[in-house]
Specification:
By secondary structure, the chain is mainly beta. It folds into 2 domains: 26-194; 201-307, Beta Barrel (Lipocalin). The protein has 3 helices and 18 strands. The chain has helices at 2-21, 134-141, 175-179, and strands at 39-47, 49-51, 59-67, 75-88, 92-96, 107-113, 127-133, 153-162, 167-168, 188-194, 201-211, 221-229, 235-238, 255-262, 265-272, 278-285, 289-296, 301-307. Strands 15-14-13-12-11-18-17-16 form an 8-stranded antiparallel β-sheet, with no helix packed on it. Strands 2, 4, 5, 6, 8, 9 and 10 form a 7-stranded mixed β-sheet that branches. A hairpin with a 2-residue loop joins strand 14 (255-262) and strand 15 (265-272). The relative contact order is 0.13. This is DUF1735 domain-containing protein. Keywords: Signal. Residues 1-25 form the signal peptide.
Length: 319
């Protein structure tokens, strides 16, 4: 009995020792057509969006490590391919290059060779950085910045070939490889064109050309207005959508008027305390001043020059 217990104890100890001392290399990597291969574990996503307002400096930037039986040495090349996806309301998805059926048509934008993968102190697997600028992306697709909309998506696909000529990509990889937290190797990265908005704050304004069926307000009015960010949206509550005009009546503004920023396209929504809605009419923008007129459904109107705050110029893409 003691011998059995001793033997079992030794077996458990050996298993623990082996498990704790063995750095993981899984010889069975689940692909659809073979079970031994390689994958590209994503270890860093430095940039996976394009800024609509700063496309010139936007880039797709990730770091991957090649995991295989030789610690990454079986990698021959990695193609970086791309296509643009756009959702057309009422129509569906539109792709450039145009796809046919379930076929994925994309274009080559960059190729990494085995020499691009190098050893690091963080891992025993070879790593490589993949950086594709927006300019490289648009050039490969034959597009210009003027053809890009907020909400567009660039689908970057990795196509890895090993020294045996086998291809690894998002088509033959299993769900475990593409979506599993351990493998972290989607081979497909959706890079969205985003429109950051940061208009919250209190601003100085000068109002002029104010009029309404109830009378005019000669000269100019100066004051401040506050835009309050509404969580989960790109909209802002407006403290005074008349920008001081109601002061001429001895009235105070109230209601729920919002300023909406849709990738730089500004508009009003909601209504004031009397139920009137507002229209925003853009005139011009400079780093120091945003100029526009407003009009509501009671035919009240005014022209506003809104000053930017120190160190926070108006975004050039506002319109």
């Amino acid at each position: 009995m003691k011998l059995i217990k001793y033997s079992l104890g030794m077996l458990v100890t050996m298993l623990v020792f082996i498990t704790s001392c063995t750095d993981f290399v899984d010889p069975r990597i689940p692909y659809s057509t073979f079970d031994t291969g390689a994958y590209l574990r994503t270890v860093a996503r430095t940039s996976d969006t394009f800024n609509f307002f700063d496309l010139g400096n936007s880039k797709f930037d990730i770091t991957v490590e090649a995991v295989d039986a030789e610690n990454g040495a079986t990698v021959e090349s990695v193609e970086v391919r791309v296509r643009r996806r756009r959702l057309i309301p009422g129509v569906g998805l539109e792709y450039i290059p145009v796809g046919t059926g379930t076929t994925v048509n994309d274009v080559l934008v960059k190729t990494l060779s085995a020499s691009d993968f190098a050893s690091t102190t963080e891992s025993k697997f070879l790593r490589a950085g993949i950086v594709v600028t927006s300019a490289e992306t648009l050039s490969a697709l034959g597009l210009t910045q003027s053809q890009i909309n907020g909400g567009d998506v660039f689908e970057f696909r990795l196509k890895m070939t090993d020294k045996s000529g086998r291809v690894f990509n998002d088509v033959n990889a299993s769900a475990d490889i593409k979506g599993g937290a351990f493998y972290a190797s989607p081979f497909l990265y959706n890079v969205s064109v985003v429109c950051p908005t940061a208009l919250a704050g209190t601003y100085e304004f000068t109002s002029s050309e104010m009029s309404s069926p109830f009378g005019s307000c000669p000269g100019t009015i100066t004051g401040t207005v506050t835009f309050t960010a509404i969580a989960g949206t790109t909209s802002y509550g407006v403290s005074d959508a008349t920008f001081g005009f109601w002061d001429c009546y001895g009235d105070t503004f109230g209601g729920n008027v919002r300023l909406n920023d849709a990738c730089g396209s500004l508009s009003f929504s909601g209504s004031d305390k009397y139920g009137d809605t507002y229209t925003f009419n853009f005139i011009s923008v400079s780093p120091a001043e945003l100029v526009f007129t407003w009009v509501n459904t009671s035919a009240e109107t005014g022209r506003v020059v809104l000053k930017s705050n120190a160190g926070k110029p108006w975004p050039p893409g506002l319109r």
